[in-house]
Design brief:
By secondary structure, the protein is mainly α. The chain contains six helices and no strands. The protein folds into two domains: 3-145, no CATH class; 158-199.
């Protein structure tokens, strides 16, 4: 149940490196008020490497003992991947046993807290909390940029007409972006042409 979410996150991070965000917040750059979430988001390459490391460890079938050595952020990545897989329906519903799922979530949380306490003892509470804050900011970045599977719920002050306008803007955004780039290029060519004519 862990590997689908990890593979999804790793694939989305790879696409994000190339500037592609197919699961970014649907109202990003369309409705500023509705997309004003995850304000403390920040991308950290070392935290992204944690996702890839956790995927490789879980996906390694050569582990004969079946035991994995994971640090606190890798355990947090597993818990995040499980939530993403469930939210995005990456795991077929008939194959999900509710009791096994609840047991897995409890074990992950227990191991994560144990690893967190070990980290605090080794690095100190202040340093450990600073690393934890960086992880939370990175998770906020993931939630906003790569983990949206559906449109946000309507706010109380959003009427059906405004919601239709938001959808229309969302569909027209690529066209508007291309037109804006076209007119900028035309203006630049016109300015160069005038500069060539000027004495």
């Amino acid at each position: 149940m862990l590997l689908p979410g990890l593979k999804f996150l790793a694939a989305q991070l790879k696409m994000a490196e190339n500037g592609h965000f197919p699961h970014r917040h649907p109202l990003d750059r369309i409705d500023i008020q509705s997309s004003k979430v995850c304000r403390n988001q920040a991308y950290y390459p070392d935290m992204a490497a944690v996702i890839f490391a956790a995927r490789d460890k879980v996906g390694d079938d050569d582990k004969s003992s079946g035991k994995l050595r994971l640090h606190v952020f890798e355990l947090s990545a597993l818990a995040l991947a499980l939530r993403v897989a469930l939210r995005g329906k990456l795991i077929p519903s008939p194959s999900v046993d509710p009791h096994a799922l609840a047991d897995l979530q409890k074990r992950l949380e227990r191991f994560r807290k144990r690893a967190r306490n070990t980290c605090y003892k080794k690095l100190g509470i202040e340093v450990g909390r600073a690393h934890a804050k960086r992880w939370r900011n990175f998770v906020d970045w993931l939630r906003y940029n790569v983990c949206y599977f559906e449109l946000p719920r309507w706010r109380a002050n959003v009427t059906p007409v405004n919601h239709f306008r938001i959808h229309l803007l969302f569909l027209l955004l690529p066209l508007l972006t291309s037109l804006r780039r076209f007119w900028i290029e035309c203006f630049q060519h016109r300015r160069r042409f005038l500069q060539c004519l000027s004495p």
